[in-house]
Amino acid sequence: MTDNAVDFLNRAIDDFKDQPKYSIINFHTAVELFLKARLLHEHWSLIVLKSPDRQKFEAGDFISVPFDEACGRLQSIVQSPVPEGAWKNFDAIRKHRNKMVHFFHEADDAGPQIASIAGEQLRAWYDLHQLLTTQWAPIFSEYGESFALIEKKLSGHREFLKAKFADLEPSIKIQISKGVRFRRCGSCDFRAARVSEILGDLHESECLICRYRDKWLDYECPDCGTVGPLREGGEFSCGKCGAGDDQKAISDRLNEEIATPDNYFEARVPAHCAECEGYYSVVEYNGNFLCVVCFSVSDEVNACSWCGEFGNGDMEDSNMGGCTVCGGSLGHQMSKDD
């Protein structure tokens, strides 16, 4: 399945200039296949939409999960979610594909739309590459050379964005002279990503060329001390020495609420995240509460009135409706009825 995904992605890049319609269709197919390959690694039944049957699966007689369902299962079953920003970029590709297949699309005439499509595919590839080489690295490590070749071939996409950078470069230089921070965009590679601070070492940027939005936390490697970007997903891998931290280690290092024998049972964090359904992923950070998986920031965490677990969600009706980890009294009653 991964071989097919790589094949479709290469075809999408090859067709980009002369046949943008098929480039969009093949690019979307590649993204879906990579997501399904991750599900398949977990268990074959996860890529079957309903009523999994092993014999039918091996015979190819099944309907596979669509994009939304694949992302949902990656989050709820595999516990390795597609970050929100990546989901949005993949979904933009999906919508373009659907419009292309079922209706007329401006890309049929290429021309003025080609630069926009180039930026869209670069954004999606950047997020996909992050997933495949960081969050899911142990599973897709043997495809490093294939991914490097795809990255090289995408340099042609960046050529379509050069003119836009040339137009914006004087304005960017003026903003830099006034103290605005810009960084090189991981997607299109132009130094056009405007940086802003969210909270402490948590930053975000938006590229003025390809519109790629990035979010990361400057994180110190536990082994060599090099500061590198910690991105959504709850795992860190040092770009210099290869050492890393998992979600628990990251939570322990960032958490500013110190647990002691005296307050252990009253400690509010780590708490659960209602945004990404992260399990014990919310810590106290810079006077606020930060989820180390999805980077959502909240002012407070509260205890569920039913189970007593702390989380960053709305707990007003939690006694009845529950929280991220329980179904409340209503869920409890329904389980008894079953």
Written description of the protein model:
This protein has 338 residues and is of the alpha+beta class. The chain has three domains: 159 residues; 83 residues, no CATH class; 84 residues, no CATH class. 45% of the residues lie in helices and 13% in strands. It has 13 helices and twelve strands. The chain has a five-stranded antiparallel sheet with strand order 1-2-3-4-5, with no helix packed on it. Helix 1 packs parallel to helix 8 and helix 2 packs parallel to helix 6. The radius of gyration is 22 Å and the shape is globular. The mean pLDDT is 90.
Give the helices and strands as they follow along the chain. HHHHHHHHHHEEEEEEEHEEEEEHH
Largest sheet: 5 strands, antiparallel
Give the neighbour order of strands across the main sheet: 1-2-3-4-5
What is the 3D form?
globular
Count of extended strands: 12
Topology, please?
Elements: H1 2-15, H2 20-42, H3 54-59, H4 67-76, H5 84-102, H6 114-135, H7 137-140, H8 144-153, H9 155-159, H10 162-177, E1 182-183, E2 193-199, E3 202-207, E4 213-220, E5 227-230, E6 236-237, E7 244-245, H11 247-254, E8 282-285, E9 288-291, E10 297-298, E11 302-303, E12 310-311, H12 318-321, H13 328-337
Helix pairs in contact: 1-2, 1-8, 2-4, 2-5, 2-6, 5-6
Keywords, please?
single chain, 338 residues, alpha+beta, five-stranded antiparallel beta sheet, three-stranded antiparallel beta sheet, 13% strand, globular
Would you kindly provide a brief summary of this structure?
With 338 residues, the chain is an alpha+beta fold.
